[in-house]
């Protein structure tokens, strides 16, 4: 009988914090920017420059720690992790090994196997390294230090996950918590959330771990899922052939859907960690923890409960809307203006989702204002515009956040509710379509639809469809 294998997975997740300035200097953390323009002597590792800790980094880290059920380390400090690499200008990285800011937490995930707690071993604060840009054409490597010194937290899980599905559920839960806290935008494609996957396999029923490998360079949930499946297969094949899995760091190539060895895995002692001499320990008082706890925003679970009580919208809608803090904020702000939660929810669930898919956008990228969506809902409700015009106007709001009142006025899109004008058009349509008129009078209900269509066309889509229908039936007897 073939052996059955179980996959054992732990993650190291790096999250860039949303501070305006870097962790140890006053340079901007903004993404983009010409190479080496967001830099100074501190973040480029010039001799004699000294780090000064950004307080906001500690507060964001505490907020994430509390939201993931961790214990906050009330006396924590920084350490030097020494390694030589071109994108690491000091030849060491300031990180935390001995006393990280938070530890022993968990997040609860839900997957096909039901609910489960994934334990968090620890979370530490550190600075990011620069970025190497390899130019294939010139066969050179250039270094950009803009990212160097951007504040990170690294969240290290216990090896509690058993499948790609559980890993994605864990990452989505973490991302949602951090976005709700406003501590990071967690955009994988911009590198503000990155995950390294530690994976090993073992025979089902065994309680000893296999040899693990670590996979880097994973910048989308799809790549993570593919890499997990690929690495699981690779390790099982080695074991089946009687070979050993080597502990090493591997790099995932998304185009080739294949991983290859980068280097044999170092252990902590290879980094010669020692306490960072230029920074004093951080002492976190009970009062400071309480202050951060009180400032914690409403997280998704609480929000969902409140939506059920407060707004009359389907549970499915509430779940989709609250998946993104930005979408939930849009929903609440629009509802506060027009007081029509059901209609707001419909616009977000149908048209907004459709346009997001069409433009390959995420909820965090939505730029339109609640004021303009509320105005459109009022226009449609009052019958000032009909439903097809409303959709056309919404597309402009979605793309350019236009004022719907002004747009409707300028483009002459108001619904024609003038009975006399309508009657004149209907008389012409009836005269021009004798066959459809005869069919309708002969009992073919469908023929009426054709006449309504002709009328809407003649009035450039601006007639009130209900009114057209009603008057046509009257005129045709």
TrEMBL record:
Reactions listed under catalytic activity: L-glutamyl-tRNA(Gln) + L-glutamine + ATP + H2O = L-glutaminyl-tRNA(Gln) + L-glutamate + ADP + phosphate + H(+); L-aspartyl-tRNA(Asn) + L-glutamine + ATP + H2O = L-asparaginyl-tRNA(Asn) + L-glutamate + ADP + phosphate + 2 H(+)
GO molecular function, one term: ATP binding
EC number: 6.3.5.-
Coiled-coil blocks: none
Keywords recorded for this protein, A-Z: ATP-binding, Ligase, Nucleotide-binding, Protein biosynthesis, Transferase
Subunit structure: Heterotrimer of A, B and C subunits.
Name by which UniProt lists this protein: Aspartyl/glutamyl-tRNA(Asn/Gln) amidotransferase subunit B
Source organism: [Ruminococcus] lactaris ATCC 29176
């Amino acid at each position: 009988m073939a052996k059955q294998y179980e996959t054992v997975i732990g993650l190291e997740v790096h999250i860039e914090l949303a501070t305006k300035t870097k962790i140890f200097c006053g340079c901007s953390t903004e993404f983009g920017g010409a190479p080496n323009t967001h830099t100074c002597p501190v973040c480029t590792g010039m001799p004699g420059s000294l780090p000064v800790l950004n307080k906001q980094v500690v507060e964001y880290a505490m907020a994430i720690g509390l939201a993931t059920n961790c214990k906050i380390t009330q006396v924590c400090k920084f350490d030097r992790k020494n390694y030589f690499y071109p994108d690491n200008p000091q030849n060491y990285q300031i990180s935390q090994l001995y006393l990280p800011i938070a530890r022993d937490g968990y997040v609860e995930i839900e997957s096909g196997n039901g609910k489960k707690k994934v334990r968090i071993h620890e979370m530490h604060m550190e600075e990011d390294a620069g970025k190497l840009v390899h130019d294939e054409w010139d066969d050179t490597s250039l270094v950009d230090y803009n990212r160097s010194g951007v504040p990170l937290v690294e969240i290290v899980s216990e090896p509690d996950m058993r499948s790609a599905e559980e890993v994605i559920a864990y990452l989505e839960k973490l991302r949602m918590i951090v976005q709700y806290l406003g501590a990071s935008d967690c955009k994988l494609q911009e590198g503000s959330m990155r995950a390294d996957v530690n994976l090993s396999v073992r025979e089902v029923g065994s309680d000893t771990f296999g040899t693990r490998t670590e996979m880097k360079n994973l910048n989308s949930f799809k790549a993570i899922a593919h890499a997990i499946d690929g690495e699981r297969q690779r390790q099982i094949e080695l074991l089946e052939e009687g070979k050993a899995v080597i502990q090493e760091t591997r790099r995932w190539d998304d185009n080739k859907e294949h991983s290859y060895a980068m280097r044999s895995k170092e252990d902590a002692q290879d980094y010669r960690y020692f306490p960072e001499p230029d920074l004093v320990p951080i002492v976190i008082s009970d009062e400071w923890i309480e202050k951060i706890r009180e400032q914690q925003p409403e997280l998704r679970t609480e929000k969902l409960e409140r939506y059920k009580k407060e707004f009359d919208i389907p549970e499915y809608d509430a779940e989709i809307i609250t998946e993104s803090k930005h979408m939930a904020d849009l929903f609440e702000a629009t509802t506060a203006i027009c007081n029509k939660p059901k209609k707001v929810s419909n616009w977000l669930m149908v048209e907004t989702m459709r346009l997001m898919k069409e433009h390959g956008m995420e909820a965090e990228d939505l730029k339109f204002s609640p004021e303009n969506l509320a105005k459109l809902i009022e226009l449609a409700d009052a019958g000032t515009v009909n439903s097809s015009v409303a959709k056309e106007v919404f597309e402009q709001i979605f793309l350019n956040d236009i004022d719907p009142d002004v747009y409707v006025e300028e483009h002459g899109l108001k619904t024609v509710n003038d009975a006399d004008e309508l009657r004149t058009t209907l008389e012409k349509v009836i005269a021009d379509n004798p066959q459809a008129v005869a069919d309708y009078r002969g009992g073919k209900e469908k023929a009426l639809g054709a006449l309504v269509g002709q009328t809407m066309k003649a009035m450039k889509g601006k007639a009130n469809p209900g009114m057209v229908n009603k008057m046509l039936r009257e005129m045709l007897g």
